[in-house]
């Protein structure tokens, strides 16, 4: 009998950024089901999800209850400190000015977003992120923006 050795390394690996963005998308879908603008966020530290959130502005009657804000609070609680060093935020839609500003105070290492927000995105207002924060957009961009688009389509 011959034994074949299948080398898994020939399979294209799914980039970690995509895997984590899928987790954020699952949270955005939860928001969608609850009739909230479907945006989800997670915070990852050393390969572990330490904070999650999705938009809860309707349920909480709180305009500050954005996905990122929930995730920052959860991650800080998990770490027992306010600074999110060596952490990455994955959020399905580009952070707004408020959330980019909050991320500034956390000094988070990296922000990765899916869809760009042409109207409310922080990048329209210069660089509001901390100098230590690396920012990257466009991960699963189509899926992230399609979810928001279909939400507002249903509203009309
Ligand atoms: Zn925001």
List the helices and strands and how they pair.
Layout: H1 16-33, E1 40-45, E2 48-54, H2 67-79, E3 87-93, H3 97-106, E4 110-115, E5 134-136, H4 141-155
Parallel strand pairs: 3-4, 4-5
Antiparallel strand pairs: 1-2, 1-3
Helix pairs in contact: 1-4
**Largest beta-sheet details:** 5 strands, mixed
Helical element count?
Answer: 4
Order of helices and strands: HEEHEHEEH
Spell out the CATH superfamily: Cytidine Deaminase, domain 2
CATH hierarchy, class: Alpha Beta
- Order of strands across the main sheet: 2-1-3-4-5
Form type: globular
Number of strands: 5
Helix proportion:
25-40%
- The helix/strand class is alpha/beta
CATH architecture annotation name = 3-Layer(aba) Sandwich
Q: Span from first to last CA?
A: 64 Å
Ligands (ions, cofactors included): zinc ion
What is Rg? 17 Å
**How confident overall, as mean pLDDT?**
94
**Overall tally of structural domains:** 1
Family: Belongs to the cytidine and deoxycytidylate deaminase family.
Keywords: Hydrolase, Metal-binding, tRNA processing, Zinc
Subunit structure: Homodimer.
Function: Catalyzes the deamination of adenosine to inosine at the wobble position 34 of tRNA(Arg2).
